[in-house]
Amino acid sequence: MADTQSKQWHAPLFDTLTALQRSNPVSFHVPGHKYGQSIAHLTGMNDNAVQTFQSIMRIDVTEISGTDDLHAPSGIIQEAQTLAAEVFGADQTFFLVGGSTVGNLAMLLAACRPGDLVIVQRNAHKSVLNGLMLAGASAVFIMPQKNAGSNLDVLPDISQVEEAMAKYPDAKAVFLTNPSYYGLSIDLEPYAKQIHAHGMLLLVDEAHGAHYGLHPAFPRSAIQAGADAVVQSTHKTLPALTMGAMLHVQGQRIHTLALADALRMIQSSSPSYPIIASLDMTRAMLQAYGSDLFEQGIHAARRFRAWIKDQSAFETIIVDEEQGRSSAAAIRVDPIRVILREAHGRLSGFDLQQRLEKYGCYAEMADLRYVVLLFGLAASDSDVDRLQEALHAIAEEIEREGLKARENVEMPIEHHRTMSEPVVFTRSGVQHASNGTETIPLSNSAGRYTVEAVIPYPPGIPLLYEGERITEETIIYIQQLMEHGARCQGASDPTMQTITVLRTG
Ligand SMILES: Cc1ncc(COP(=O)(O)O)c(C=O)c1O
Q1: Residue 464 carries which DSSP code?
Q2: Residue 439: CB partners within 8 Å, gap ≥ 6?
Q3: CB atoms < 10 A from the CB of 242, how many?
Q4: Among 120, 127, 234, which is best to mutate for testing ligand 1, by the most ligand atoms less than 8 A from CB?
Q5: Is 126 in the pocket of ligand 1 (CB under 6 A)?
Q6: What's the pLDDT tens digit per position in 253-286?
Q7: With CB atoms 3.0 to 4.6 Å apart as the test, which of 199, 334, 424, 446 could cross-link to 183 if both were Cys?
Q8: Distance, CA 207 to ligand 1 centroid (Å)?
Q9: Phi and psi dihedrals of 259, rounded to 5?
Q10: 179 cis-preceded (ω within 30 degrees of 0)
């Protein structure tokens, strides 16, 4: 097992906050909890709540002497961000307190002026569409490819990107999402070269790949492949606090001042110090332990995949790592993420997720077919034992209940349509259309234009964005999702029996 003992860390931001705490400061400033003192005497309350919050409140400071300012860094935050840029191979790194969500918004706000065009992979997170809307930009959507074995989406083929760039030579940027929520990715270097040859920016949502490039078993990162700006959710696969993320920049194609400006606009003027200190701590751990940090999680996921091979009731999606290294366009699966399904179509991903929860195993996400399990850097042998015991018990349940295969359900991506016409995203939007709107049964909505987005969460990829024409396939897919207990954001009727559309005529 890896040597993860007794290393020295250097974390300027985290170290300053803990030193401040040790100096017994008297707070005459916000936040009102005063390093937890304001709740310390409330012992009549739930003691556990006081203790739990106090440990975080001790480092929950604000901009006072020595603690710098995230929006105009010149001290410990600047140093922490510079150290992070070194570890992640960027020229400049911004710490984010609003997740990859604000990183996506900022990239689009910085790269686009109103009316600019961006070539966007269709299965993007909703924050990308919101970014386009805030920027007043238009999008040409290009469709993801399907991975044959799993039928899951991966990056659009490079020829599609080329076709879109040739047809829309004035586009400012290409916006790609890699890896997918399922952990499928393709090396971005050929994309970066081609996109730069057209004088466009490559912007990448790498929310699920903050660990990429940090261990030889992982695919290389988008920055290593040549992207101009990349967001990573450090809180997703690395040990930062929730909402802790980073925006990495490389080269001169995107203006860092414009990014900083956008971030000042969309992030709180009181950013959370525990969150940015956790980003600093994560970087310090990576520097101190290097790739050793991931050995345990990689080992656990390998052990689980090997076990699954002998289980007739379940299977995992495997794309060969060696094949991935030898072929540039090969699809890779994240080594510390497992895509699991019941092998004979008797349980949907949602069913399997619920059954796992009965045994105390909580998955990252499920869909109609798959459950996604994040092993991360620290899954242990005993975690794997728990999971295997749970699956063993579920296999017995399936047999006992005599379950039969369900109808095969697939995501209705329109493969014949590889590129959309430009779609204008404006904040004034379709809701204020002159003809007005009406709410109708979803089942009767084919051919109409929705005024609300329909976003199953997770994964947060809009099935319909505001203003999109509704197709029969999409209706069936939404109905199937709802039957299996999916949750949809964005829509005014959370049961999705009805949908609000533009009036016709
Ligand atoms: C592909 C993708 N991009 C961006 C985000 C937003 O990330 P965050 O939750 O860090 O804001 C998500 C969230 O799940 C995502 O799946």
Answers
A1: B
A2: 492, 493, 498, 499, 500, 501
A3: 11
A4: 127
A5: no
A6: 999 999 999 999 999 999 999 999 999 999 999 9
A7: 334
A8: 5
A9: -65, -45
A10: yes
